[in-house]
From TrEMBL, chains A, B:
<dbReference type="Pfam" id="PF00392">
    <property type="entry name" value="GntR"/>
</dbReference>
<dbReference type="GO" id="GO:0003677">
    <property type="term" value="F:DNA binding"/>
</dbReference>
<protein>
    <submittedName>
        <fullName>GntR family transcriptional regulator</fullName>
    </submittedName>
</protein>
<dbReference type="InterPro" id="IPR036388">
    <property type="entry name" value="WH-like_DNA-bd_sf"/>
</dbReference>
<feature type="domain" description="HTH gntR-type">
    <location>
        <begin position="13"/>
        <end position="80"/>
    </location>
</feature>
<keyword id="KW-0804">Transcription</keyword>
<dbReference type="InterPro" id="IPR008920">
    <property type="entry name" value="TF_FadR/GntR_C"/>
</dbReference>
<dbReference type="InterPro" id="IPR036390">
    <property type="entry name" value="WH_DNA-bd_sf"/>
</dbReference>
<dbReference type="InterPro" id="IPR000524">
    <property type="entry name" value="Tscrpt_reg_HTH_GntR"/>
</dbReference>
<keyword id="KW-0238">DNA-binding</keyword>
<dbReference type="GO" id="GO:0003700">
    <property type="term" value="F:DNA-binding transcription factor activity"/>
</dbReference>
<dbReference type="Pfam" id="PF07729">
    <property type="entry name" value="FCD"/>
</dbReference>
<dbReference type="InterPro" id="IPR011711">
    <property type="entry name" value="GntR_C"/>
</dbReference>
<keyword id="KW-0805">Transcription regulation</keyword>
Length: 222, 222
DNA sequence: TTCGATCTCAAAATCGATTTATTCATACCA
DNA sequence: TGGTATGAATAAATCGATTTTGAGATCGAA
């Protein structure tokens, strides 16, 4: 089975798409202050690109929901809002729960292997805490692999989008090591339940997983 | 209650956003052939705009899912694909069903009024068949009003996106007058069930409504 | 003082031209 | 013949400069 990751055609990337990818990462990782107005001329230097590709990237990010576009007034980073976090987390529970049920029904042996591999890579990565970005990458990848065979391209698309939104909050929040350990353990349990094809238990655990992450992420809204 | 429609701030629209709106309409209404490669220089003349705002609009449309962007190879109109229509219709059933349940639980008296008004406007409009675009506008507006008080901005956003995708297929398909009459009648029945706060029946009817629309829309594939 | 109009500056949006990449046709060689 | 290199021609992407807009300062009158 082919577990599609973020970008299939990296070959001959355009300047605009490279900036899009880089800024998406930076926005999700909280490297821009929430609510901040985006200084286009500043970004031009920061990413070493011209105005046209930069503006195209900003337009895409706005359509994707990681920036807010105000006509004639440029772009700004969305504020962190408790209400919106509730919304995002709630939608994650609904959509990822739905996707996981379907994935467990559809997933084949190849998926089982991918899932075990992704979980293992994630587990190994969090031992070396110095590379947070790498851990984040593997974490996102694990969750994507978990629901990948759900059979709906649109569902996966929405889930990806919600993940990016959610992570922006989570990465702004202070870490909670005790909860982090529980969350990490749940990744392994999710794999077990998925392999056992225990649809109900797996869904319940995933929803609990999201709920606990949500409580951590709440720390960003104070 | 405030039923937010498509655009809140029309004031001082930018060229890029006007082109975005116009092209979104045209794409949803099937005024571009499916699978067709987008000739940027042609569009420049068609919409009477320069290259920069046009490209920004295309980038947004691609992020929104109404165009496909291929690096260094420009943009193309997505193909009509039976599998994808299945996916879109299925997701509409799930998400709009979910949203309707919540809307019925949350909707207040103002919503009831808006809903009656939207249904009435729609009913009156389809008597004068010469203005299809106007009917489409009111139809979309009715369905949006129906689920508006669901309480989730993200759910509404996804539903809007799926509607645009779905309508692209439906508007490409030949009309089926007999089914159209049933669908029109269902709009009124949906309002009745919503006002009676009959969550289960309303959801079932909405899912049936989408299913019948889907069967019409199937006419566009092959 | 306070309100409103006008001006100024900085930033956003747009334009026209240039650069870069892809496609398709043609020629060359194994 | 089949495959691969070469070279316009075409289209996409990017650049640098210009135009337009919005925010804030300044002035003047009630």
């Amino acid at each position: 089975m082919d577990i599609p990751q973020r970008k299939e055609r990296k070959e001959s990337a355009t300047t605009s798409s490279r900036v899009f990818d880089a800024m998406r990462q930076d926005l999700v990782n909280g490297r821009f202050a929430a609510g901040e107005k985006v200084a286009i001329n500043g970004l031009k230097e920061q990413y070493r690109v011209g105005l046209s590709p930069l503006r195209e990237a900003l337009n895409r990010l706005a359509a994707y929901g990681l920036l807010v576009q105000e006509n004639q007034r440029g772009f700004r980073v969305p504020r962190l809002d408790r209400r919106e976090l509730d919304d995002i987390a709630g939608m994650r529970r609904e959509l990822e729960g739905m996707a996981l049920e379907r994935a467990i029904l559809n997933g084949d042996a190849e998926w089982e292997s991918e899932l075990l591999a992704a979980a293992h890579r994630l587990k190994r990565a969090d031992l070396s805490l110095d590379k947070v970005d790498e851990w984040e990458r593997l974490h996102g990848r694990f969750h994507r692999t978990l629901v990948a065979p759900c059979g709906s391209v649109w569902l996966l698309r929405f889930i990806d989008q919600l993940h990016d939104q959610f992570d922006r909050y989570r990465r702004m929040a202070p870490g909670v090591p005790a909860v982090r350990r529980i969350l990490d353990a749940q990744h392994g349990e999710l794999v077990e339940l998925a392999l056992e094809r225990d649809v109900k238990a797996a869904r319940a655990l995933l929803e609990d997983h999201i709920e606990r992450s949500y409580e951590v992420a709440l720390g960003s809204c104070k």
